[in-house]
Amino acid sequence: MTETETTNHVPAPATSPRDASVTAPATSPDGLDFESWTCPVPLRSTPTVVMGHGGGGAMSAELVEHLFLPAYGSAAAHELGDSAVLTVGDGTRLAFSTDSFVVRPMFFPGGSIGDLAVNGTVNDLAMSGATPLFMSSAFILQEGTALTELGRIAQDMGAAARAAGVRLVTGDTKVVDSGSGDGVYVNTSGIGVIPAGVDIGPRRAVPGDAVLISGDIGVHGVAVMSCRDGLDFGTTVESDTAPLHGLVAAMLVTGTDVHVLRDPTRGGVAASLNEIATASGVGVELIERDLPVPDTVRDACSLLGLDPLQVANEGKLIAIVPGDRSDEVLAALQAHPLGVGARRIGTCVPDHPGMVVARTGLGGSRVVPLPVGEQLPRIC
């Protein structure tokens, strides 16, 4: 392996992280032991964690694939989705998910870290088709945080849990020294039940499937950015944070074999579709003019040099369904209050497998890459 190769972050062509090891000298000139490394490791030229590792893009994937999975070995799950699907003794299938929330600021237009934490975990469960039932809530608090702020966050969590029909059944609280944290961090885990006959997963997309989105994209990310560092976009943009399991249930009622569901949070629509394309081995072709980007989001992204497809959402879902059932599913989405703005934005194709391409209004095309890191850190 050359020095140049050590800074190349493209994953090696291996069937699994544990097959990705390469032959290398026992030690490098600077004394590093390569024997126990899997190649490539995340940012080998940067020996510390950086913000991009938490962004939901390529750097996050590298951290999981080349650090965590090899370390966990046989103890790791084989499927890596928004939630794990577990079968209990009587054949009941459970969805289990966990997530952590470090959004800054803790309160933003349309929501707070409290309702975001509940809705985020509810939505991870819903993307497996599950009905969410129970959740945990764990807090890491910085010494000196105002109890009035903590109380407001707890109130928001309670209200969101009641609205979603889930119970907060266990939790934990830790406090770190002043200056060691940043206000309040929240971790939530959730359990839900998957109905019989529902099989939803990123590997199920096939050529001919329709790609649907439930509404406007990029709203949450811009809402959070609008109250950071005095940024003013000329109008108030509110987060779209919302529980999506009712919207999923509305699609399943149609009897359609829904192939894939994802809520495009960190990394936005771009990250979600790239992960689906890679997992299923299909290409995804988007029609750029059909993407529902509100003018406020488009203007804010233009000002900040951001791609709306890479901006986080917290109340939208991507659905990949058989093309011949797409009109029926789309009608079910549009009949639900959270899916009024739903539309078809693209198609799964056999060409360019593992790649997402957008057809522009001028008749050309552009590749929509998996984000490397995170355009907007601390967004959820």
UniProtKB/TrEMBL annotation:
Pfam short name (any one): AIRS
Gene3D superfamilies: PurM-like C-terminal domain, PurM-like, N-terminal domain
PurM-like C-terminal domain sequence ranges: 207-352
Domain of life: Bacteria
Domain PurM-like N-terminal: 82-194
Record region (Disordered): 1-33
SUPFAM superfamilies for this protein: PurM C-terminal domain-like (SSF56042), PurM N-terminal domain-like (SSF55326)
NCBIfam families in UniProt: hypE
Homology family: Belongs to the HypE family.
Name of the protein: Hydrogenase expression/formation protein HypE
